[in-house]
Amino acid sequence: MTAHPALDLAAAVAEQLADPHTAHLGPAVSQRQNLAHGLPGIALLHIEWAAVGLGPWQRAHDWLAAASCEPLTSGPDSHPFHGAPAFAHALACAANHLPGAYQSALDILDQQMAADVSRRVDAAHRRINAGLLPALAEFDTIRGLTGYGAYLLRRNPDAAALRAVLDYCVRLTLPITHDGEPLPGWWTDTGPSGRPDDRFPGGHANNGMAHGIGGVLALLALAARQGTFVDGHDAALGRILVWLDRWREDTGRGPAWPYWVTREELRTGRLTPTAPRRPSWCYGTAGLARAQQLAALALGDARRQVDAENTLVASLTDPTQLKATTDNGLCHGFAGLAHVAARAADDAHPSTVGQLRATIPALVAAVHPPGTDAAHAASELIQDEERGPGLLDGAAGIALTLLAPSTAAPPRSAWDTCLLIA
After folding, report:
1. Are residues 161 and 113 in contact, defined by beta-carbon separation less than 8 angstroms?
2. Single pTM value for the model
3. b/e for 198-236, b at 16 or more Cβ within 10 A?
4. Closest by alpha carbon to 163, among 202, 114, 199, 126?
5. How far is CA 267 from CA 183, 245, 246, in A?
6. Does residue 27 contact residue 385 with C-beta atoms inside 8 Å?
7. Span 394-407, average pLDDT
8. Coil, strand or helix: which one is 146?
9. Phi/psi at 298 (5° precision)
10. CB neighbours (10 Å) of residue 155?
């Protein structure tokens, strides 16, 4: 038995996913090269498990080999969470702990990534020059340039490709005039799915970490904290923060942000009343509070930092928001909330760190209630046909997010840099 009940669940998941040839993958792993649901995300579990000394590196290698047994998708059909870039993230996480390992493969992948980023940045600037609105997939964390920036920042903070991404992010925050109306530069004329949607006439401005301006804020903040700046860097951070300040709501138990702002809301300056929403990483107050904490740290703004941390505490202890959280996954469930809280606590102001850490046990208990049989719980998670064993919604992600709170230490492999929360 391990020392922490939640670690027992993580260990059981890792054991039941030990071998890619015999593990139950199910229909949820239909896209094997997908970081969110496929083999690279499961490889991250074994990479982190080995990095903290709880498992053998051979398992990580076996999953990496399985993920790359077929030609990796690259170029326009790939993105940060699919194909060569997704595999590159997992491989880089392993290579950091195995000096010299995988170097030739990473060199090839880095060249592909640089070429892809150059093509995407050039297309984005042509789009801006033409006065057109962006697609979410142009800039978001999952499919777009912000996600590429997360990888580049980790691999080489001085890379020209990263500076090109950051320059683009700065330009994205500048207002754009469309049909005679001034709009934020990240305004898209689709719905949140990225497709035309009658429920969003005139499009929307997405606030989320996964698909919106929250991810851009986090990338600019993380780059600044590592000493990588481009012209207009601080001003871009400021423009995003002004936007979030403008659309901040008071729930009665603390601030919250809408997932998006519609054209009608922008014109009237008033949000449409909605039911309480889950405070998730992908969309929601927890992810945005972490992004604003990072921005405050980058700007040296202690007042905003403490405000962001208090907002995070409020969202993680608000019964109405927690009631809206209906699953245990990393992307929008309790495991993700526990991980965001743990990462925020690592950077927190002395006045709030204790409150942040105090939120974690209840969140972990929601994922793995005391007295629950770990092996049985792991089996149920892995065999869930809808969520499966993957990273964002499934068992591997839950196991990964339980490690940091259970061991009271940040991830050793930096697997979560793809989420832009660290």
Report:
1. yes
2. 0.97
3. eebeebbbbbbbbbbbbbbbbbbbbbbeeebebebbeeb
4. 114
5. 10, 17, 13
6. yes
7. 90
8. helix
9. -65, -35
10. 20
The token pair at 165 is 């991404």
> Is the Cβ–Cβ distance between 92 and 415 less than 8 Å?
no
What is the mean predicted confidence (pLDDT) over 110-137? 97
Task: Enumerate the β-bridge partners of residue 79.
Answer: 82
pLDDT at 30: 62
* pLDDT, tens digit, 9 for 90 and up, residues 322-349: 999 999 999 999 999 999 999 999 999 9
How far is Cα 307 from Cα 57, in angstroms, rounded to an integer?
41
Q: Where are the alpha helices (DSSP H) in 347-373?
A: 353-367
Q: CB neighbours of 339 closer than 8 A, spacing ≥ 6?
A: 281, 330, 400, 401, 404, 405, 416, 421
pLDDT digits 0-9 by tens, 168-196: 999 999 999 998 899 999 999 999 999 99
Q: Could you tell me if 38 and 23 are in contact, meaning their C-beta atoms sit under 8 angstroms apart? A: no
